[in-house]
Write a structure and sequence with these properties.
Blueprint: E1 14-17, H1 20-26, E2 36-43, E3 50-53, E4 60-67, E5 69-74, E6 77-82, E7 85-89, E8 95-99, E9 106-113, H2 115-122, E10 130-132, H3 135-152, H4 158-177, H5 195-203, H6 211-218, H7 222-233, H8 237-255, H9 260-266, H10 272-283, H11 287-292
Antiparallel strand pairs: 1-2, 2-9, 3-8, 4-7, 4-9, 5-6, 5-8, 7-10
Length: 300
Amino acid sequence: MTTIRKEEDFAGQILHVIPRPLLAELSQHFLLRQLIVTDIGWYPEARYHYRERPAGTPEHILILCVAGSGWLEVNSVRHPIQAREAVLIPRNLPHIYGASEKNPWSIQWVHLQGTVADYFFSLLPENVYTVPVSAELTAVLQHHFRECYDTIMGSFVQQRMIFITQTVQHLLGHLFFNNRLFSPTLRSSQFHNLDGTLDYLRKNIDKPLTLQQMANHAQLSKSHFARLFKEQTDYSPMDYFIHLKLQHACMQLTLTRQTIREISLAVGYTDPYYFSRLFKKIIGKSPSQFRTSPQTNYNI
């Protein structure tokens, strides 16, 4: 029995491949030198979809599975792909992927070149090629893909290519930095959603929370919580909480006429002198100095 395999030609598909001579010309523009879209498309219910690239591609590949399922094979290891997962294949990486036979995937996809693409793809942990995506974020990413298709409309003029590339960069920003199911600072496939913890800290900004209280709220041991928090935010829990308090204090100093003592109490410090010393150490100015020139850049 012959196995059916298709690279494209799916009912309702969208496919845009930028001609390579034009691509070379467009990439001279300063807004396209560091990131440029080379190919982009939409394959709905892509039954029999199959691609095998023994030498990879010179572009990075992003695939967003919005329905159905498929698989990716890298270094003889097969990774199942489900709906609401993004697949990221670095340039020049040999790979094979395809749609599930029983429940073929529907995918938005884009090929990218440039140092900005290099940066985003470098954020993936080693040997990790998928990123989970919430239902809400999937809808946002699909909207950005549709914006790209609507903009191209069969023409690859410079202005449209700049808009498309900027839109895809915004899409990557969402995927890596506005994704509650993934953190680019986590250097393993393990992930613990910190949204509840961050909300807990915001709601208790007026309290002197301890590390143990934070860990208890996250239902993790103190050491495990501290390690995961640091990996996913680049701050220790206590440092993050202090910066959150001082950020709120800066707003109050700028927008209200509350006294420094009142603001100190509002962010959980009963000793206004300690608060002022801490504020100056981190912000670089005393609270009263900041209040007189809040527009000046500060370190927080």
